[in-house]
Target: PadR family transcriptional regulator
Amino acid sequence: MKVNKELMKGSTVILILSLLSKAEMYGYEMIKEIERKSDGVFSFKEGTLYPILHSLEMELCVESFWAEKGGRKRKYYRITKQGQAMLKEKEQEWSLFSLSVNRVIGEGQA
Model:
């Protein structure tokens, strides 16, 4: 089952920041990790991911750097202190949102 793109829009930043809070990653690696961790439910295209990363970089929530690993030079991203603060805020926001949705859709059930 595919998730509506409108639902995904509000979740992309928290997914990216959450990944980067655990490890530095390059773009394609993030795409594959999100897909793997969601059992294929979330599937990002590069055209979706990179504008978000660039926006987070402009907001000083992530920073990029070039590194060579395994003989390949790639642009990696890491979360900053500002990004950690944003992630915490997004996690609280998500918790409130999901709790509230579950309360509404759960009404009337035994």
